[in-house]
Amino acid sequence: EDQVTQSPEALRLQEGESSSLNCSYTVSGLRGLFWYRQDPGKGPEFLFTLYSAGEEKEKERLKATLTKKESFLHITAPKPEDSATYLCAVQAGNYGQNFVFGPGTRLSVLP
Amino acid sequence: DGGITQSPKYLFRKEGQNVTLSCEQNLNHDAMYWYRQDPGQGLRLIYYSQIVNDFQKGDIAEGYSVSREKKESFPLTVTSAQKNPTAFYLCASRKGNYGYTFGSGTRLTVV
Description:
The complex is a heterodimer of chains A (111) and B (111).
Chain A: E1 3-7, E2 10-14, E3 19-26, E4 30-38, E5 45-50, E6 56-59, E7 62-66, E8 70-75, E9 84-92, E10 100-101, E11 105-110
Parallel strand pairs in A: 2-11
Antiparallel strand pairs in A: 1-3, 3-8, 4-5, 4-9, 6-7, 7-8, 9-10, 9-11
Chain B: E1 4-7, E2 10-13, E3 19-25, E4 31-37, E5 44-51, E6 54-57, E7 64-66, E8 76-78, E9 87-94, E10 101-102, E11 106-110
Parallel strand pairs in B: 2-11
Antiparallel strand pairs in B: 1-3, 3-8, 4-5, 4-9, 5-6, 7-8, 9-10, 9-11
């Protein structure tokens, strides 16, 4: 069964304290891995798509990387406005139009 | 600006009542989706539609119904057969092989 897990479940950082979030997946035929940011009471906002192992994408303080088994979302020198839940989703060959979402990591950045 | 509009933002349902959640998009996307989000769980697919007048069941379609009479609109009805409807409902659309664009969500509560 295709699965996506994320760790940690919750993470508290001090402003400026860099860290990484993990997304591990077991799917048949990865077609794409997606990262989203979700603020409380709102819909997820697209961040990155990664398609193949070794690929990296960056946006401001965020950098996403991909291996054959997992993806990391690195947060460098975070600010309080980076506080949100970060969702990972994979699109597998067997699912076509469907994605499998992880439960998310709830990030809190304290000033 | 293009986007997805979900309404209402909050909805209350009485026992035995059907309620309909609205989703409209002006992105000219062909595919539209309904997801349910519960605390601590990944998003779960309820229904999706790739073209007008056609839709498919997702992983948790029981107790829900949809229609796709126009490209822009994909309403979701939560029927009385859905025994645990309290959740955050997200509508999304997608063009080609890109990631989802999500609406801002509807929070449904049973009273």
